[in-house]
Amino acid sequence: MKKTLFGLTIGIALTGVLGLVAIKTVRPNKAPSSPLAAPIAARLEVVSDQIELPSVMATPGDGSNRLYICEQVGRIRLVDNKKLQAKPVLDLQKVIVKNRGYDERGLLGLAFHPDFQKNRKFYVYYSARTGQGGANHKSVIEEYRMRPNDPTTADPASGQVVLEFDQPESNHNGGDIKFGPDGYLYIATGDGGGAGDKHGESGNGQNLNTLLGKILRIDINKTPYGIPAGNPFANRADARKEIYAYGLRNPWRMSFDRKSGRLFTGDVGQNLFEEVDIVQNGGNYGWRIREGFHEFDAKQKAADLKEPITEYPHGPEGISIAGGFVYRGSGIPQLAGKYVFGDFIGPTYYLSEEANGKWTRGPVKFANQPEQWQIYSFGEDSRGELYVLAVLPQDKGIVYRIVK
After folding, report:
1. Number of domain units in the chain
2. Residue 264's domain spans which residues?
3. How far, CA to CA in Å, does 173 sit from each of 186, 326, 366?
């Protein structure tokens, strides 16, 4: 008998939320896993339990420490001075694919322009209802502005599409967007869905002529956007110039370490393994050639694949990764400099970088963790403190701050 999550079978729930559909057996090449390190203790402090399906959180660099939280159904909510504001910052429900229950489409990404205080610009990544040529839907990155002299309310008429592309399936949308230390906008895209990266001869992850299964990098200070000169395929006619890195299945949440500038992402696995990657310019992260450290498609070969910094097998340790952040806050000294992330079915982990460049994984144990919860995402405020975006039974959305 299948285990259930809040009344739904695991297979149904995960097919919708993060696209885990089992179809193929992989053959291990390595065994990089090691026993877990000692746990680090922390607690969860409720920020709001009135958020519907919280998908992502972002903060502008304006010193306000306001928390802007996306609801997957299409609204941006604001927590200001520790209080959830009743009126949404922006409501996109009319243009977004309807999302109720376990569906990967919706409002998936939010990022504020580095010069937000001056230009009031921010960006969203969402699933639009129309696609071309039989597409299931299309992914849209759109620019908006806050109303003049009001950083808490967006002008809905200010929307300008920056980039859009069709999605062949409803799942594996990626959807995170982040501004890097270089000022460019980074966009995480999934492989387009369908188990085994089935679209195209080699799949979308390895196909340099599609934006799917990639980390993209664009210059949004040009109209509608420009290609940074340092992009690996900027001067190639046989590849999409927006590509920064490729070979990804469903990069569910990425983040820049505010100290080192390194880009981390959690990449959702197929059947057996979840992985964390440090994303480098031009890197090929292996999907669908391999899953984690393990061969997946024996027919494909490629040189110089970038290896994950960690992986974990499906089972009690988790089944669908949610990428997090390197902790740079001050409230929990034990987590300083460690990468904190989690899994859909509840475990939370840290990664600690050792002197030899290897990474050690250990659990973060919350003294007051709910008996049942699903981790959707993580957030970071302007002070470097971390948050967990989760769903409790009866689809009750909740946002926690991680505290000592």
Report:
1. 1
2. 4-403
3. 15, 24, 30
